[in-house]
Amino acid sequence: MFARSAARSLATPARNFSSSAARQSKVTVLGAGGGIGQPLSLLLKLNPYVTELSLYDIRGAPGVAADVSHVDTKSEVHGYPADKLDQALEGTDVVVIPAGVPRKPGMTRDDLFNTNASIVRDLAAAIARVAPKAKVLVISNPVNSTVPIVSAVFEKAGVYDPAHIFGVTTLDVVRAQRFLAGVAGTDPKDTPVTVVGGHSGATIVPLLSQTPHGKGVTGEVYKKLVHRIQFGGDEVVQAKDGAGSATLSMAYAGARFTGDLLRAINGEKGVVTPTFVKSPLFADQGIDFFSSNVELGPNGVAKIHPLGQLSKEEEELLAACLPELKKNIEKGKKFVQQS
C-alpha cells in the first residue's frame, strides 16, 4: 500500500487533467537488471502515464520484467536479453539509462568514466539508430560527461535534438529538500530547493537563498548543509561498505523526473524542474551543458530558466563549479571523438 501511494505521488496528474486521457507512452529502461534499474522499473510500472514498459539488460531483464508484470496496474511489461536491444527500443517514447557500474568506496564519479562511457556510447548509438526521436534520460554516472557523450553520438548520427536529451540530476534536488527540511524542521515536500550546475561534488550548487527555509541557514550550519548536499552520495557508498552506491534513492529520483516529463508530454503546463541539458547559460565560457530549472513540454525542453539572484556564498560555489564542469564536459566530448 505504501509503495503504491508513494509511487503515484511521483506522477500525480494535474488537477482537472484526467490520466484516462493520457497518450500511449512506451518507456524503455536500459540497465533494468541492476541496483537502480530494478526499483526504477517497479516505480515506473506504477506510473499511470506508462502504458508499455520495456526492460533491457545484458542479464536478468526478462526475470525482472516477469516479476514487475504481476503488479496490478494497466501497463504491459516486456523483458529483453542482451541480444534484443533493438527490439527493446522499437517504438519507444522515453528511454531511461541507469546502465553501468556502481561507485565503490574511494571512487569518485570520475573514476567510473572509462567503463560507463563505453556502455553509454554504445547504448546511445542504438537509440539513435532505432528510436532517434525518443527522449533520453541519462542516469549513468558521471552525468556531467555521459550527457555530452549521448549528445555527441546523436550528433554524429545526424539525429541530434538538444530538447530530447536530459541528465537526471533530481537526486541532488531530493537530497537538498530532505537535508534542508531536517535543518529547518519542515516537511520536505514544503521545502523546495533549486539545485544547479552539474551532478558531482563541487559542481552541485544548491540555491538555498531562493527558498524561504534556506535563507536563514548561515555560518557553519550552511557549510555543512551544502557539503552534505554535494557529497551525499558518499554517505551511502560508505554505509554500504563496498556493496554499492545510492540505488533506491536514485531510482526514486529517476522515477520522479520521468514522471515530470511524462506529465509534460501529456500536456500538463508549468512542469519545471532542474535537469542537466544543452544550455546557453554559460555557453560564452565554453560550458554548453548545465543544470538549471527547465520547463518541460511535449517536445522535451520547452524553456531554460536563468539562475536568478544568487547570494555571495552561491556565487562562490558557482565559481568553483564552472571550471570543474567544463573539464567533465570536454572529457565526454573527447571520448566520442577518439572512439
From TrEMBL:
<dbReference type="InterPro" id="IPR010097">
    <property type="entry name" value="Malate_DH_type1"/>
</dbReference>
<dbReference type="GO" id="GO:0006099">
    <property type="term" value="P:tricarboxylic acid cycle"/>
</dbReference>
<keyword id="KW-0560">Oxidoreductase</keyword>
<feature type="binding site">
    <location>
        <begin position="139"/>
        <end position="141"/>
    </location>
    <ligand>
        <name>NAD(+)</name>
    </ligand>
</feature>
<feature type="binding site">
    <location>
        <position position="109"/>
    </location>
    <ligand>
        <name>substrate</name>
    </ligand>
</feature>
<dbReference type="GO" id="GO:0006108">
    <property type="term" value="P:malate metabolic process"/>
</dbReference>
<keyword id="KW-0520">NAD</keyword>
<feature type="binding site">
    <location>
        <position position="116"/>
    </location>
    <ligand>
        <name>NAD(+)</name>
    </ligand>
</feature>
<dbReference type="GO" id="GO:0030060">
    <property type="term" value="F:L-malate dehydrogenase (NAD+) activity"/>
</dbReference>
<feature type="binding site">
    <location>
        <position position="250"/>
    </location>
    <ligand>
        <name>NAD(+)</name>
    </ligand>
</feature>
<dbReference type="GO" id="GO:0005739">
    <property type="term" value="C:mitochondrion"/>
</dbReference>
<comment type="subunit">
    <text>Homodimer.</text>
</comment>
<feature type="active site" description="Proton acceptor">
    <location>
        <position position="199"/>
    </location>
</feature>
<dbReference type="Pfam" id="PF02866">
    <property type="entry name" value="Ldh_1_C"/>
</dbReference>
<keyword id="KW-0816">Tricarboxylic acid cycle</keyword>
<feature type="binding site">
    <location>
        <position position="141"/>
    </location>
    <ligand>
        <name>substrate</name>
    </ligand>
</feature>
<dbReference type="InterPro" id="IPR036291">
    <property type="entry name" value="NAD(P)-bd_dom_sf"/>
</dbReference>
<feature type="domain" description="Lactate/malate dehydrogenase C-terminal">
    <location>
        <begin position="169"/>
        <end position="336"/>
    </location>
</feature>
<feature type="binding site">
    <location>
        <begin position="31"/>
        <end position="37"/>
    </location>
    <ligand>
        <name>NAD(+)</name>
    </ligand>
</feature>
<feature type="binding site">
    <location>
        <position position="175"/>
    </location>
    <ligand>
        <name>substrate</name>
    </ligand>
</feature>
<feature type="binding site">
    <location>
        <position position="57"/>
    </location>
    <ligand>
        <name>NAD(+)</name>
    </ligand>
</feature>
<dbReference type="InterPro" id="IPR022383">
    <property type="entry name" value="Lactate/malate_DH_C"/>
</dbReference>
<dbReference type="InterPro" id="IPR001252">
    <property type="entry name" value="Malate_DH_AS"/>
</dbReference>
<feature type="binding site">
    <location>
        <position position="103"/>
    </location>
    <ligand>
        <name>substrate</name>
    </ligand>
</feature>
<protein>
    <recommendedName>
        <fullName>Malate dehydrogenase</fullName>
        <ecNumber>1.1.1.37</ecNumber>
    </recommendedName>
</protein>
<comment type="similarity">
    <text>Belongs to the LDH/MDH superfamily. MDH type 1 family.</text>
</comment>
<dbReference type="InterPro" id="IPR001557">
    <property type="entry name" value="L-lactate/malate_DH"/>
</dbReference>
<dbReference type="InterPro" id="IPR001236">
    <property type="entry name" value="Lactate/malate_DH_N"/>
</dbReference>
<dbReference type="Pfam" id="PF00056">
    <property type="entry name" value="Ldh_1_N"/>
</dbReference>
<dbReference type="InterPro" id="IPR015955">
    <property type="entry name" value="Lactate_DH/Glyco_Ohase_4_C"/>
</dbReference>
<feature type="domain" description="Lactate/malate dehydrogenase N-terminal">
    <location>
        <begin position="26"/>
        <end position="167"/>
    </location>
</feature>
